Amino acid sequence: MDSYQFLVHEYPASKYSQDAILRIAKLQRDRLGDTALAKKTYEDFLKRYPRSPRKREVQESLAELALLQNSEASSSAMTAAANSATTEPFEREARASGPVHSGGKSVGRSNSPQIPRVRRVRAAANGEATRVTIDLDDSVQYTSGRIANPERIFLTCMLRD
How far apart are CA 100 and CA 52, in angstroms? Predict the structure, then answer.
């Protein structure tokens, strides 16, 4: 990472500078586990190179980081909610908002009272759509819905008994 930072600092006009910044952000996220620092590096990239051909790639990486941070935050919140109250009102509300789906492949924790953990979040752009894949360590039931302007889909996971 020091070499990439040296390149960016000493040769900001280099044709390799954009790639170096993206590699720094990826190392911060994947190797150091510092999502906040990686987010800042991606945001700095967008400020420095607002017309870069790699802008969409950076925006997708930022979206992935946001999903990871949200899943960690919601996992903590859901654990606290599960410990302090029954899940019945939550399930009733979720059923009323949309169809119930179940997905994922169970890996042997089906009777566990714990909330499944997010193992990996992947995003892939395809034309005007982005496919987000969320890998969990167990199957879950969820509802889905749509929100317009901008068009998006949301998922609400339900806790099982």
Answer: 41
Tokens representing residue 147 in the block: 């929100």
Per-residue b/e over 5-14, b at no fewer than 16 CB within 10 Å? eebbeeeeee
pTM: 0.48
58-116 per-position pLDDT tens digit:
999 998 888 877 766 655 555 555 455 443 443 333 333 444 444 544 444 445 567 77
Q: How many Å apart are CA 99 and CA 57, to the nearest integer?
A: 32
71: which residues sit within 8 A by CB, 6+ positions away?
Answer: 118, 121, 134
Torsion, Cα 81 85 86 92, to 10 degrees, reads: -60
- Which H or E run includes 137? none
